[in-house]
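FW: tagging you since you asked about this chain on Friday. Here's the raw sequence from the shared folder, copied in full. Didn't touch anything.
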Amino acid sequence: MTWSFVLNDMDDEIPEHLIEAQRLEHPEYPNDIREALRMARFLGIKSGAITGMRAINPYQDNEVVDVSVRGMIVKTDFVQSVVRDIQAGPDGH
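HL: got it, structure written out here
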């Protein structure tokens, strides 16, 4: 399973009940979410998406952990920004 949050303002807090609900999928997901949000803020990202997942490594007894932070350093409606970029196509910039 995976988790993701899109935030138009990284200074906003994700409601704790939404973070803790992810514990049902994996006990470490709440910690992963908090760390991804901390990392986004540290990097100066103002709006964007944080995503993650954990999966069993079939070759070892360990897990594969993936946490991703994507975003803009200027506050914007991140979803609308992505939609505009897609609609503009590769030559739109």
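FW: Residues 56 and 62 are 7 Å apart (CA to CA).
HL: agreed, and Strands lie at 2-7, 47-56, 63-72.
FW: great, closing this out.
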